[in-house]
Structures are given as structure tokens and as C-alpha cells.
Design brief:
The protein is of the alpha+beta class. The protein is built from four helices and 17 strands. The radius of gyration is 22 Å and the shape is globular.
Length: 244
């Protein structure tokens, strides 16, 4: 494969995506995960009901939870590369997939690859295999963690999470998935978010966590933060959170 089309995010030196030139402007491009926020979050009003917090302000919904937003905004989301139709019976023992005429976007894995009648295949049928046309390339020492888009409950399927050393394996990575719903007759459009790709620097942390009791200094810091939270609004949001 030569003369591949590259897609960089703001000249990001850590991660880039590229595809075969024949697919340029044909398949949907990966985008920052913040562009794929789930509808339930986007449609959520920032406050709810008539209740008030201890400062007299209207109670905030999850829409105003910045840790939630920061988590869902992390990484880059790879979308489905073409339209897909899925039909199944009452227990997903029979699943039929219809790919677009010009491009295979989904196949099957053998159920035995995940243990046959395991929790993955029970009422989910044979695992799906989404065909990914984007090559993910990371800088030396960086891998890519592929996970389902965070807090996205809209899809009738869920891809399995995995990590690939994409600095050493610049090749397409396909995404196994389980069909979550039974008795379906659904159209899944191109552009539907499949996975979020998060670059991870290998050896950036120890494999075993340090577990210990907190020190007196750390205990005083926890108490100090609690007192600040009880004396001024949005202490974390405005004073502790690092602006993204």
C-alpha cells in the first residue's frame, strides 16, 4: 500500500490516521472524540427541576459535570466506514448483515474465538467484526488504546476494548463487537462512532499501584478541599481543573 492519505489532528506529533487513496473523501474520517458526544448528553439541560443547591443555585445536571465531559472528549473516535444493515432473531442465534455494494464494513468472528457459549455470545450470537480502513500510527514508545466511546448508549452493539502497539504495527486494526439487542432490523449509517482511540505512552507508569494509608499532610489537604467546596461554588471547575 503506497501513497496513503494521511490525516493529522492539529499537526499532532503523537498520533496520525491514514487510509488508501481510493478511500479518500469516501469513508468518514476519524475526529476528536468531543465531536461524537452522545445525544443524551448533548440534549441534557444544564439544570433540572426547581431544587437548589446549598448556595441557592439551581441544581446542575450531568451536562455541567466537567470530569464527565473531559472523559468523553479524550482521544479520537473512528466511525463506521459505510452503511450497514443488521437483522437477527429472538436470541441472535441467527444474524444477517448486509454490507454496502462497494465496501465490506462488517463480518463475523467465530464464536469459539471468545469461548463459544460465553457471556459475550449468550443472546449476542457470533461476535461481529467491524472492518477498519484507517491505519493508526503513533510515535515511538506510544501504543493506542481502543475502547467503546465513553458513555455512549445509542449503539445496538459494543466493540471490545484492546491496546495495540501502533508504533510498531502500522496496519489496519479491526474491531470485534457484540450485538447487544435481539430481534433487530436496523440500519446503522456510515459515520456511527465505533471506537475511541487514545494514545498511551508505554512504561509511563508502574504496572503495580502503590497502596498505602494517607499521610497527615494529605489528610489535611483533603479537609482543606472539602472546606473550600463548602464555602465557594465550583471549586474544582474554576480553581483545580486544568483547562482542556
Amino acid at each position: 500500500m503506497v501513497n496513503l492519505r494521511k490525516l493529522k489532528f492539529w499537526d499532532n506529533p503523537i498520533i496520525e490516521f491514514y487510509c488508501h487513496p481510493e478511500l479518500e473523501d469516501v469513508i468518514p474520517e476519524p475526529k476528536p472524540a468531543v465531536k461524537f458526544l452522545p445525544d443524551w448528553f448533548k440534549d441534557l439541560p444544564p439544570t433540572y427541576g426547581e431544587t437548589r443547591d446549598s448556595f441557592g443555585n439551581k441544581s446542575m445536571s450531568a451536562k455541567k459535570c466537567l470530569p464527565l465531559l473531559d472523559g468523553m472528549s479524550l482521544g479520537f473516535t473512528i466511525p463506521l466506514c459505510g452503511d450497514l444493515h443488521i437483522m437477527s432473531n429472538h436470541n441472535n442465534s441467527q444474524i444477517q448483515i448486509t454490507n454496502p455494494p462497494a465496501l465490506i464494513v462488517c463480518e463475523f468472528h467465530d464464536a469459539n474465538q471468545v469461548g463459544g457459549h460465553s457471556s459475550i455470545t449468550k443472546n449476542h450470537g457470533n461476535p461481529l467484526k467491524f472492518i477498519n480502513r484507517w491505519i493508526v500510527k503513533t510515535a515511538p514508545g506510544w501504543s493506542t488504546l481502543f475502547i467503546p466511546p465513553l458513555n455512549n448508549f445509542q449503539n445496538p452493539f459494543i466493540c471490545l476494548g484492546a491496546m495495540v502497539d501502533t508504533d510498531k504495527y502500522p496496519k489496519e486494526v479491526n474491531f470485534p463487537a457484540a450485538l447487544l439487542q435481539t430481534d433487530v432490523d436496523i440500519h446503522i449509517p456510515a459515520g456511527t462512532p465505533l471506537v475511541t482511540a487514545i494514545p498511551i505512552k508505554r512504561e509511563s507508569f508502574d504496572k503495580k499501584p502503590r497502596i498505602r494509608p494517607m499521610t497527615k499532610k494529605e489528610f489535611r489537604e483533603v479537609e482543606k478541599i472539602s472546606k473550600r467546596q463548602n464555602t465557594r461554588t465550583h471549586h474544582y471547575t474554576y480553581e483545580l481543573r486544568v483547562k482542556k
